[in-house]
Specification:
Layout: H1 5-44, E1 46-53, E2 66-74, E3 89-93, E4 100-102, E5 106-112, E6 115-120, E7 131-139, E8 153-155, E9 162-163, E10 170-171, E11 178-179, H2 189-192, H3 206-216
């Protein structure tokens, strides 16, 4: 039977069908593997946030009146293949204005509101097991760990974004309150309690609270107790009418 143009086209399509099925069959597991690699990165990456100084001696240009904090990332022993060439990014929130960010590896962009993005500098890369500090010079101050935001997440081309596990909030079993284990507790009062010499704020520790109440002496019983307290009150002769 002579081959017409239609028959030739059908035979060509049939010949190509196994190849297309093969690509689909082998392409899907490859994408699953890439996603699994980034899932593992989000699960195993170490993260630490720490406020270092609320009144550093010198602020970078463009960050007058700054405070200094760091965001530290520790890489796991295994990283996804092609990490430096797949549009990798880390997104985090920072409630203060953040005009200056310094890092050997990452460049910084403000996305919107408090959402920030870190991407690779040209030619930069991450190495397994290494730690990378990102210096954050924000405007104002952070006097409490409550300013830190949870759920830092990572993205890359062709994969679903994943929250870095270390930055998820936890519930304290004893208090029932939400905590962020990746945030370093504030302990350096000299650098963190105030914004400089003119600021006389001190931390109210249990010891200081005890001393303050002890100085007041025993509580006196007033003749008249009215809440809210009026500017003037006096007791006059007579009886209250029922």
């Amino acid at each position: 039977m002579p081959l017409t143009g239609r028959r030739i086209a059908l035979l060509f399509a049939a010949a190509m069908l196994p190849a297309s099925l093969s690509a689909a069959t082998y392409g899907a597991p490859a994408m699953v593997s890439v996603q699994a690699d980034y899932d593992a990165l989000a699960r195993d990456m170490g993260v630490r946030f720490q406020v270092i100084d609320n009144h550093p001696e010198k602020c970078p240009a463009g960050a007058d009146g700054c405070f200094f904090s760091t965001l530290t990332f520790t890489m796991p022993a295994r990283l996804p293949a092609g990490l430096g060439s797949d549009e990798f990014a880390i997104y985090f929130s920072f409630v203060n204005r953040l005009p200056v960010v310094e890092s050997d590896v990452f460049q910084h962009n403000l996305i919107n509101g408090d959402l920030q993005r870190l991407t690779f500098k040209p030619g930069a890369a991450l190495a397994p097991g290494k730690t990378y500090d990102v210096k954050l010079f924000g405007i104002g101050a952070q006097h409490s760990v409550a300013y830190a935001m949870p759920n830092i997440y990572l993205t890359a081309k062709g994969v679903t974004a994943r929250v870095i596990e270390a930055t998820r909030p936890r519930i304290d079993r004893e208090t029932g309150l939400e905590t962020l284990p990746y945030v370093v507790p504030m302990s350096d009062e000299a650098k963190l309690a105030s914004r400089g010499a003119a600021d006389k704020t001190v931390w109210q520790t249990p010891e200081r609270a005890y001393e303050a109440f002890a100085e007041r002496g025993a509580a006196a019983t007033p003749e008249i107790a009215i809440l809210p307290t009026p500017q003037l009150a006096e007791i006059r002769p007579g009886k209250l009418r029922g």
